[in-house]
Amino acid sequence: MTTPPETSFEVSDLNVYYGHVHVLQDVSFRMGTEPLGMVGRNGMGKSTLVKAIAGFIPVRSGSISFEGRDLANKQPYQITRAGIAHVPQGRRIFPSLTVHEHLTMVGARKSDRWTVPAIYDLFPRLAERKRNGGAELSGGEQQMLAIGRALLSNPRLLVMDEPSEGLAPAVVDHLAEVLRGVVSEGQAVLLIEQNLRFATELCDRILVMVNGRIAADLPASEIAGDAEVQNKYLGVV
Amino acid sequence: MDQFLLIALNGLTLAGVYFLVASGLTLIFGLMRVITMAHGTSYLLGGYLGYVIARETGNWFLGAIGGAILVGLLGLLIHQVLIRRFQDDDMRVALITLGVSLIGTDLMLAVFGGTATQVPVPGDVQVASVSIPFIGPYPLLRLLVLLIAVVVGVALTLFITRTRFGSVVRAGVDDSQMTAATGVNVRVVFAIIFVLGSALAGLAGVVGGTLFPLLPGQDGVYLLYSLVVVIVGGMGSITGAAIGAVLVGLVSQFSLVYAPTYSLVLTFALMVVVLAVRPQGIMGRAV
């Protein structure tokens, strides 16, 4: 395992259960400010990991620590306030709120890097849809909004769960381009993806999850060009 | 024709009281996904407190404000002591609040007795009437109740749709977990809404107790009607509560005149029809 230069986020020996099902088994990894991707087939426990990090589901044992604080089993709002923001699978936009209300409810300060106008600069499409309700947005617009909403808490780690899911290839390319810009500013990102190309475009280091364990920790270049590795971990068996 | 309009106006003023009770319940129900069975008790207690304050001070408005504030404070106590730790267990919250309502009902019977009382208003307001075209003289008091309901409804709507806290409340009704993930301490929001909902029930008790007698048993009646209003209108929606209250008020008044035997049945028939056609309620969102 390569040791990142600056370790700020560390998951160690994490065990999570759904009822009696042992979904995450002794998951451990560390990351610093470099973007980290995690890929794996459906049902391998990737989303469970994200939910455990976000505080949506309880952790049986192990720790999730960020900047030296243990965040396992903390309330979701405490985790967000500790500096970890969450772009959930399925986007989970609020149907009753307009685009603008989604952004203003987070309450970013004027001195922050990410303010409501900064999000409109990042995603001009959202500015055009400002007064539209969350339920009226296309999938791509919803994803932009979910990312904007997460960025507005000005996180030091952005956790994204399948942001490319269900989006047209052109929209995915656009998102990748915007996110590359965000990452180049030094924004730490943990990206959970099924779309390997999207993950390798954004992250230099990729973890592979198989059956609730981290099965491999590889440079993106290695996994991107190796059909055998892809087939072993991601192919449909 | 005259009678038809008179009944309609009676239905609307009754709807004003139903709306005041149900607006608090719909916020609590929609946001916290728990049913507070003590909501009718808050109504009756608010009425009695308003009665005592208005009688002692001779000022109806002090009674209304006092009833709302005191019941709101009691709601805060109930939420913090009894509900907060069981928040995720809706059945337990329903049972706890049912217990609170049973105890509250008996305590009120002991303190205020079993005879009907009414919140006093100055004598000239009590008997004043306004002449309305096609209807003739109509009690001013009933129109004032309708006015209060409209003012409260508009204020609540502005609060929920125009403020940042209102955005948070609507987001919480949609998806409270995701709301928490944006950094909002949802439990604090729940507590504020529970207090606000209780205070609205208290205010409704004073307003309703001015038009209609305050009696043991009224708590159950208003809990039932406000539940019907919330189910018909859709939980979590102030507009839905207004529409539901108007429908329930009109149906109950018209059926009282034209089909008195079936009055209660028709009110529930309204609920059944709405549930059959639109299970989430008229303004509710499909879950």
From TrEMBL, chain A:
Gene3D superfamilies: P-loop containing nucleotide triphosphate hydrolases. One of its GO terms (molecular function) is ATP binding. Keywords: Amino-acid transport, ATP-binding, Nucleotide-binding, Transport. Residues 9-236 form the ABC transporter domain. The keyword Transport applies. Belongs to the ABC transporter superfamily. This is ABC transporter ATP-binding protein. It comes from Antiquaquibacter soli.
TrEMBL record, chain B:
Pfam families: BPD_transp_2 (PF02653). It is a multi-pass membrane protein. Keywords: Amino-acid transport, Cell membrane, Membrane, Transmembrane, Transmembrane helix, Transport. The keyword Membrane applies. The chain crosses the membrane at residues 6-29, 60-83, 95-119, 139-160, 188-212, 224-250, 257-277. It is found in: Cell membrane. It comes from the Bacteria. InterPro entries: ABC_transp_permease, BCAA_transport_permease. Belongs to the binding-protein-dependent transport system permease family. LivHM subfamily. This is Branched-chain amino acid ABC transporter permease. The lineage of its organism: Bacteria, Bacillati, Actinomycetota, Actinomycetes, Micrococcales.
